[in-house]
Design goal:
Largest sheet: none
Order of helices and strands: HHHHHHHHHHH
Radius of gyration: 28 Å
Strand content: under 5%
Number of helices: 11
Structural class: mainly alpha
Length: 340
């Protein structure tokens, strides 16, 4: 019972916070038109994925433990597969973008155009939706055969509900292999960024690094932090899924629950990711502060207006009540006089 309450509380805390932070970032990027640049367009796509997962994943997760219907479990599965696939692909594309700008700075503007970035992001989302949509088919979900199958559906145990061929193909081809490639790419990014950073501080007066180059170095370190967060929050749970899919029912059902505590760890990335690329990016940080300052007075004004309106309504009700009481008192007084 305590574990159930902890999971519900975790969903109830992470969901609204993750949705709020990612919504603020998306609103800031589109309001300030920063999304027109390639790098911020990738950030907007990642924030959209995190916001979707924080809202729908947590909502369906709470509904599972409160209502207990299998339809909400399907919603969690679809949201998880969609978010995992999209976030891993977007982070891999972001890493490739940072690697290319450091490795081939002259060829970078010709390769990574805004049109090419939009096409890649559309393809990523299309593949993710197609892959998540396969879970809604009957062939991807195992049928109910015994009491254990019913418990698996009730507790939404991913590896005991979905067909093992789907889990192996999804975890290997769309999660683990792209993530390993991203890790090696970020090791190369870290080396290149460190080398450029040393060159930047050793530059003489005759050879100064441009502000664009300095910004690229900072963006590279930000990308490494985002990838580290994504790997630490996503890879453990996906490895558990792969092991369970390859060795079906190797882990007893009663001892499986601690492994699925790793599932909650991935929700932390929906909060950490936007905080990382907001805190480490001065331009985005300044724009987000402006957005929060704009929203806060409006919120305060609305609260004050609502309070004043409520107070006026209460005063009107009190005055009406006093008038009614005085009228009734006068009627009683007149009746007493007439009776005398």
């Amino acid at each position: 019972m305590a574990q159930r309450e902890i999971i519900i509380a975790t969903f109830a805390i992470i969901g609204p916070i993750g949705l709020f932070i990612n919504t603020i970032i998306i609103w800031t990027l589109f309001k300030s038109r920063l999304y027109r640049t390639r790098n911020y367009l990738i950030y907007a796509s990642l924030a959209l994925c995190d916001g979707f997962y924080a809202s729908f994943g947590c909502l369906f997760g709470i509904c599972i433990y409160v209502v207990g219907e299998f339809s909400f479990c399907k919603g969690v599965l679809v949201a998880t597969v969609l978010a995992y696939t999209t976030s891993v692909a977007v982070v891999a594309f972001l890493s490739y973008d940072r690697y290319l700008v450091l490795r081939r700075p002259l060829r970078y503007p010709r390769i990574m155009t805004r049109r090419f970035t939009i096409i890649v992001i559309i393809i990523i989302w299309a593949v993710s939706f197609l892959n998540a949509g396969l879970l809604l088919s009957r062939q991807a979900i195992l049928p109910i055969t015994d009491h254990i199958s019913t418990l698996n559906r009730k507790n939404c145990v991913l590896t005991r509900i979905v067909v093992r061929e789907y889990l192996i193909a999804w975890s290997l081809l769309l999660i683990i292999l792209p993530m390993l490639t991203t890790i090696f790419m970020n090791i190369a990014i870290l080396r290149l960024a460190t080398s450029h950073y040393k060159t930047l501080h050793k530059a003489t007066a005759s050879f100064r690094c441009t502000p664009n180059r300095e910004w690229n170095i900072k963006a590279a370190f930000t990308t490494v932090r985002i990838v580290t967060t994504n790997v630490l929050c996503t890879l453990p749970f996906v490895c558990v899924i792969l092991v369970e899919a390859l060795c079906s029912y190797c882990v007893p059902y009663k001892t499986m629950r601690p492994f699925y505590a790793l599932f909650l760890l991935n929700f932390a990335s929906t909060i950490v990711n936007p905080l990382v690329y907001t805190i480490t990016n001065q331009e985005l940080k300044r724009k987000v502060n402006q957005t929060l300052r704009t929203i806060s007075p409006l919120f305060i004004k609305r609260c004050l207006a609502t309070t004043v309106e409520n107070q006026s309504n209460l005063s009107m009700m009190a005055s009406r009540r006093s008038i009614t009481e005085l009228a009734t008192f006068d009627d009683r007084d007149n009746k007493l006089r007439l009776s005398k």
